[in-house]
Amino acid sequence: MYGLKAVVIGAGIGGLTAGIALRQAGYEVEVYDRVRELRPVGSGISLWSNGVKVLNHLGLGKQLAAIGGTMNYMEYRQINGNLLNHISLQPLVEEVGQRPYPVARRDLQNILLAKFEEVGGKLNLSTKCIGVKEGFSEVTAKFEDGSTAVGDILVAADGVRSLLRQYVLNDSVEPKYAGYVNWNGLVPISTALAPADTWSIYVGEHKRASLMPVAGNRFYFFFDVPLPLGTVNNFANYKNELKSHFQGWAEPVQRLIERIEPETVARVEIHDVGPINKLVKGRVALLGDAAHATCPDLGQGGCQAIEDGWVLANYLVSTNLSVPDALRRYELERKVRTTEIVNKARNRAEAIHGKDPEVTEKWYQQLAEESPLDVTSAIAKIIKGGPLH
Question: Computed over its alpha carbons, how large is the radius of gyration of the chain?
Fold first, then answer.
């Protein structure tokens, strides 16, 4: 099915990965996004080895290594700073054959965009898709300004609040609030906050404070707090909010709060989507958060969007019955994988954030008692479920 054209709606991680993979497969690719400039939501992301392997395969290995943080260890600490568990990630790397890379989202989007343009993809911004119309052998995206784009396939990678999800499902599926708010951003690496090669996570009171190294001598940080939906979001008050929520926590947590620059911090009410029973309708395929937004508690949201792009392109070039047939094969494979990830991430979010306080208390105990090899084996199992083992 060479020489065909793909219209991709959404220029996030999933849309750009799909665009690169489809261009390399011989498709003409046009990516459309409603924003005037690409500004990723959130400051950082953990790319586990399954996502890294796909990007390596697409020719981004050197670029990814350059923007990835050196994360050799994970550690869990109590509110008072006492160590619960210290985990070497070397056994994980040896088991799965690739390091994970924590990265700044802007850095990741920049290398994806550069690669997409290098392989000849076309990006169109300020173009909001408001509908889709299918014919027998083509599909048309309709935009708010009255313009259209016609292709052989339409990839709906338009995010957690996807407009095209309803077209595919013939139903409205709204994102579901996960029950907690996440503040995240970037600060300079300092050993007064955490070791420079370690993902440090403080846990207690159903909350988390976390630091993870990314390139550029920076930590990606986040704070999680269970809160009702719709609490006031005012960046001028972020420091006071965090000081209140994390009062009495260890000194590195207090230093981190002092060092954040509130105007650069993202404050996100965490939602997920699905699992949904359908990813494809005719020549239209949902991809990434449009299909399966996950709670970020497994670190697999971006990785699943990356996997989607690879699997989609692979079926389009490895099967030649028809575009709809290739998309059905994509749907069958990705539904199994992403349903498991969405459910597992939701269960973990609830366990971490006190939906049932007894469950959260047991998790804290487990952190102290669990063998580091059991932790890395559990992560490896998720990684090895990806399309590139």
Answer: 21
Assess if residue 241 is contained within a domain: no
Listed residue (226, 198, 368) closest to 297, CA to CA: 226
Distances (CA, A) of 347 to 272, 360, 362, 365: 12, 11, 14, 17
Residue type, 121: G
CA dist., res. 142 & res. 148, Å (int) = 5
The domain total for the chain is: 1
Length of the chain: 389
Burial string for 363-387 (b: 16+ CB within 10 Å, else e) reads bbeebeebebeebbeebbebbeebb
Peptide bond into 100 cis (omega under 30): no
Any idea what the CATH number is for the domain that residue 341 is in? 3.50.50.60
Among 1-5, 278-282, 376-380, the least confident range: 1-5
Question: Is 218 domain-assigned?
Answer: no
- pLDDT, tens digit, for every residue of 121-155? 999 999 999 999 999 899 999 999 999 999 999 99
Q: Flag whether 116 is in a domain.
A: yes
Which range of residues forms the domain containing residue 285?
5-175+272-383
- The C-alpha atoms of residue 253 and residue 257 are separated, in whole angstroms, by 6
CB atoms near residue 318 (< 10 Å): 11
Q: Which residues contact 169 (CB under 8 A, 6 or more apart)?
A: 276, 277, 278, 281
Residue 75 resides in a domain = yes
